[in-house]
Amino acid sequence: MITNTELEYKGDLYPTKIVSFEHEVDSIYFHTGNSVILKVTVLRDSLIRFRFTTKGYFSNDFSYAIDKSHSHGYNFLEVSEVEDYYQIKTSKVKCRIQKIDMRLSIFDLEDNIILEDELGFHWEESYEYGGNIVKMSKASKDGECFYGLGDKATQMNLKGKRLENFATDQYAFQKDQEPLYKVVPFYIGLQNKQSYGIFFDNTFRTYFDFCHERRNVTSYWAEGGEMNYYFIYGPQMQDVVTTYTDLTGKPELPPLWALGYHQCKWSYYPESNLKEVAAKFRELKIPCDALYLDIDYMEGFRCFTWNKEYFPDPKRMVAELAEDGFKTVVIIDPGIKIDKEYAVYKEALEKDYFCKRADGPYMKGKVWPGECNFPDYTNPAVREWWAGLFKELISDIGVKGVWNDMNEPAVMEVPNKTFPMDVRHDYDGNPCSHRKAHNIYGTQMARATYHGVKRFAYPKRPFVITRSAYAGAQRYTSSWTGDNVATWEHLWIANIQVQRMSISGMGFTGSDIGGFAEQPSGELYARWIQLGVFHPFCRTHSSGDHGNQEPWAFDEEVIDVTRKFVNLRYQLLPYLYTMFWQYIEEGIPMLKPLVYYDQEDIQTHYRNDEFVFGNQILVCPILEPNSLGRRMYIPRGQWYNYWTNEEVKGGKEIWVDTKFDEIPIFVKAGAVIPKYPVQQYVGELEFDELTLDIYYKEGKEKSVVYEDAQDGYDYKKGRYSFLSFQTTGKEKELIIQLHKEGKYNTNYSKYKINLIGLPFKVKMIEIDNVEVSFDKNTLENEGYLIVDKEFTAFHITGE
Length: 799
Hints:
Shape: globular
Domain Glycosyl hydrolase family 31 C-terminal: 587-673
Domain Glycoside hydrolase family 31 TIM barrel: 251-579
Pfam family, one: Glyco_hydro_31_2nd
Mean pLDDT: 96
InterPro entries: DUF5110, Gal_mutarotase_sf_dom, GH, Glyco_hydro_31_AS, Glyco_hydro_31_C, Glyco_hydro_31_N_dom, Glyco_hydro_31_TIM, Glyco_hydro_b
Number of strands: 51
Oligomer: single chain
Domain DUF5110: 689-757
């Protein structure tokens, strides 16, 4: 019998006419004649999930990205049918689904279009692997802008770009290079002063095209899995980012020392070398809270071991460093050396915890230790085992943090730099190939590490950092932007990457200050420090192959600049800690690109360099050599030059003079900025006053300050201090009202109030309606007052 068995190439396939629908509580199902099902789930009035299947039924609904601990709920839901379409209406938006072809459109309540399908959902059969290549194309309006997508090394506005998501070890990556270490398939669209977000929760290799191939079409597609995306309506970008961060989860508060300055190198060894670095920081009085040990601390690069020649007594060394205020952070990679005498390898082998190839043998790859096997962190039993391995490092030796590297996963000397795609994974009971699990491998390793560090650090808080991450990884870990290069272009890239990560849900991020590869000039290092102290994660790291990169590797001028800016970071720790509190409580990003800060102002839509640190400090790095100033955009409103206290009106681009030991920094009028005294490490000093820099504004401004014990979990029992300051400025008056919440009593008893920009001479001061005497000379010459922290209203009257 002869048959024609040649496969028919069908090309792109599309849903046909909708033949039925049903409504079940928060979900509406639409069925087509060719077995496509669209499930629309209303999670909130402004958050709607769209899930498609082409086989007539849905597979198990599972996601590593979504924070399942958080509940959702909507206020209003109405489903109706007219001749041509079905309509789903909430209290924020209307979604219309065409009966003829399942294409959908989303409108606000005034029938203004927010987002509409162009071709809409379509798919192509994957004959090589099975399943589908799933695709979505949306119509894009003229002038529409796009932001987000994690740590992309390109312009802030993604209009005209095509980008790829596949976690990749990209040593010494370049501007616009794709793909990079992290996968955050979430973007924000902005058009007609309305923002919306799309989160395409698909862990296969994904692509996003923002009007690159076709001028008015935005599309995204994946090499497998489902077309499963969430639509988030703003209309403000703040609302979109907050909702997305809420959906994928927020971290817990880090210990305050984790927000200090950290020093790292590949590698500090032996012990005497590490001790010299520690001593030099204290000698030069450059604050530092953490020192890192790269792979050379291990015995033959075997994880969870120590090289006893370099570090004969790790517990003693870690304790001695701790006495001088240094926390020790160590690296742990996923590759486990194939060595039958190595306890970690033996145990994983006995318990069958390593990843396997499709035909059964263990996945084998070369990394730093040589030939390795790799744990399957998508298996809950493996994660539990991995967490338990941290007992000795954390409980016994006293290490305070763990740094996960090479977890894309990276494999050396193979063309694709990673596992073969046929490697199998448990995927929490949803078995799959590496094609599906690749992008979440690093996150699941960080998750297991987090649970181990948390278990053995208790009652202190854990600190974990990862190189590779998928959306939602922020629940477990901080991150950095990978193996960058000591160039001015990379300083520009670092600035954009950390801003973009901040609005992509992963706020606790920084770059390798000075560049990992190659060697920076003193000027470049100084300019990078000046930027890096305004990143949530602040660490100098470098490859020792190219020379030293500690602050004292450069001249005295660079040492002075480093000290000045690291001192500034330590002064601003209460401000930075408050930013972090707002991030974990409300999903507010710690760094705000100008378009996030003021999307109504079209001048912000293409700005890359300037960002708002927290809510009230505007920062603009110097990104070119030999610069004693630069042009920058000042957002709308009133601002003060931090260095000169000169008031500037925003909404325009201006030239700002700087010096080698300055970058443009501005403070929002009306702000109350809290400051600690300079410490060489967090917790070094007991101090009796908190400095408050208060910037005059005609009108009202609110500022907040969050404090707690700086570590531990008492803050979850209400033992925190949350201060809300309301400043009200008039022509000859300044009123400061203070409201306090929480049961934590701070150690200090006084506020040192610096009054900046007062347009009048002080005639009278009242505290809680009682007139108080004050030293006029001190106030006029020094500009400050000392007041008891228990006040609730502070009233200054001018002459």
